[in-house]
């Protein structure tokens, strides 16, 4: 028998609000999680963005807050939702606003890059639900603009990314402000050991629910890889974009600088392209995302951190212009396409120095990604490849003339060994992410500096 929202025990006013949304039947994570959350249990949800996890925790929280029937006291917060990026915070808040329409429930959000004064002003009245990035929340707590002494619910969303981004110290700091008698929910796309440790520290006898095994991308996504030098990537991307005019593409770059340069090149070539990365102000990022959502832009170039959790249903193609240095990010990246039952294609570009990353992705997927062009790089080519940051000689689009999209170019594997696997050690992953560390491990490098404020 199919479960309906009414079967999950949600109140009539929530069911009424749901009728006006696109949420007709609960998704698997909602079916599994909502009854436990309604029963007041701590919960650990292994689920990616796009599974409906925001409603999975948002609807029961709303139900319980509506039950209280009176507004929060000034400067207090009833339910705190922490998320790693400003984009994700605003997406969660937008989602909650849909469910709370027509109710007295007050949802507030605080993120860096926006006016602290305005956020403090808003919090003076108290919030039923506060969605926040850790850094800005700590600023407000330290200034005395908000208090968590009456917070009964804590949600840690995309917990694995929060740890990746070095937020463990911020989480510890914030947790100290929240009463121990609370309900804690943790959602994560992956469940490495440090997440289990985090859960042991902050959750009590949690119920565990899981919807899609980690590292298993949606079956519907067509995946392919081009083996090509860095200098050829832009031209191959250009060919693909020209082949699919008007279809939205998300292009992932490794660095802020590289992504910006690529975006400018695409614009110079006449594409309607924008970029989001850490060097852009919050306003610029919001504006670009809105333009992309409204299909005013066809191409969005993004870094992993900036694109984390964003939900844009129209994305038809994902290009891994640079391979991700954390294999799980490949799954997150390609999960941006094929949303809501639509078709999706993911095309990866693998330069010699990225062979280690590609192999890590294939190991995680437990399959080989079909080759669209080139051949796996031979060990000697991989060994001689410049490491990230050393390949500045070639600018995007200034390669050796380009490899045709979908063509089978120069065989670079060692003679007699087509497709030979490189034996060289994968190069160290540099770039956007701090290594994951567990509680009690050495201090993450300059963790505070990565807090988006
Ligand atoms: P999330 O995993 O929370 O980021 O959800 C991603 C998208 O799924 C959002 O655009 C939601 O509106 C949508 N969504 C969530 N729950 C459902 C549902 N039960 N049916 C259809 N769409 C849903």
Automatic annotation (TrEMBL):
It is an enzyme of class 3 (hydrolase). The keyword Lipid metabolism does not apply. Residues 236-382 form the Helicase C-terminal domain. InterPro entries: DEAD/DEAH_box_helicase_dom, DEAD/DEAH_RhlB, DEAD_box_RNA_helicase, Helicase_ATP-bd, Helicase_C-like, P-loop_NTPase, RNA_helicase_DEAD_Q_motif. Its EC number is 3.6.4.-. It comes from the Bacteria. Residues 3-31 form the DEAD-box RNA helicase Q domain. Keywords: ATP-binding, Helicase, Hydrolase, Nucleotide-binding. Residues 34-209 form the Helicase ATP-binding domain. Residues 386-395, 413-431 have a biased composition (Low complexity). Residues 386-453 are annotated as: Disordered. GO terms for molecular function: helicase activity; hydrolase activity. A motif (Q motif) lies at residues 3-31. Belongs to the DEAD box helicase family. This is DEAD/DEAH box helicase.
């Amino acid at each position: 028998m199919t479960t309906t929202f009414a079967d999950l025990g949600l109140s009539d006013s929530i069911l009424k609000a749901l009728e006006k949304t696109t949420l007709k039947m609960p998704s698997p994570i909602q079916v599994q999680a909502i009854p436990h959350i309604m029963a007041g249990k701590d919960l650990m949800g292994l689920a990616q963005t796009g599974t409906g996890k925001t409603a999975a925790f948002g609807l029961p929280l709303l139900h319980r807050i509506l039950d209280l029937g009176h507004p929060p006291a000034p400067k207090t917060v009833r339910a705190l939702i922490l998320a790693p990026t400003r984009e994700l915070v605003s997406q969660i808040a937008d989602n909650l606003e849909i469910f709370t329409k027509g109710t007295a429930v007050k949802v507030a959000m605080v993120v860096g890059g926006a006016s602290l004064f305005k956020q403090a002003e808003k919090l003076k009245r108290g919030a039923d639900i506060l969605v926040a990035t850790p850094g800005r929340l700590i600023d407000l707590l330290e200034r005395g603009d908000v208090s968590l002494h009456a917070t009964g619910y804590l949600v840690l969303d995309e917990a694995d990314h929060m740890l990746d981004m070095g937020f463990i110290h911020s989480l510890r700091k914030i947790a100290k402000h929240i009463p121990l008698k609370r309900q804690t929910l943790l959602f994560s796309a992956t469940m490495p050991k440090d997440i289990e440790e985090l859960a042991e520290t902050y959750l009590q006898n949690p119920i565990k629910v899981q919807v899609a095994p980690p590292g298993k991308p949606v079956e519907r996504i067509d995946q392919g890889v081009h083996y090509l030098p860095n200098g050829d990537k832009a031209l191959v991307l250009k060919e693909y974009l020209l082949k699919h005019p008007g279809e939205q593409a998300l292009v992932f770059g490794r660095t802020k600088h590289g992504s910006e340069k690529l975006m400018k090149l695409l614009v110079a070539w006449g594409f309607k392209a924008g970029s989001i990365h850490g060097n852009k102000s919050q306003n610029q990022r919001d504006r670009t995302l809105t333009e992309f959502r409204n299909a005013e832009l066809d191409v969005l170039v993004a870094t992993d951190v900036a694109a984390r959790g964003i939900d844009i249903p129209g994305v038809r193609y994902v290009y891994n212009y640079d391979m991700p240095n954390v294999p799980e990010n490949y799954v997150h990246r390609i999960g941006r396409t094929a949303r809501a039952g639509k078709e999706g294609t993911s095309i990866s570009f693998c330069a010699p120095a990225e062979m280690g990353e590609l192999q890590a992705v294939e190991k995680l997927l437990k399959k080989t990604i079909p080759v669209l062009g080139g051949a796996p790089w031979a060990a000697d080519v991989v060994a001689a490849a410049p490491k990230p940051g050393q390949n500045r000689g070639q600018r995007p689009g200034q390669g050796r003339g380009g490899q045709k999209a979908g063509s089978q170019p120069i065989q670079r594997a060692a003679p007699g060994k087509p497709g030979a696997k490189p034996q060289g050690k994968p190069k160290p992953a540099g770039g956007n992410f701090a290594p994951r560390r567990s509680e009690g491990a050495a201090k993450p490098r300059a963790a505070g500096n990565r807090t988006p404020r």
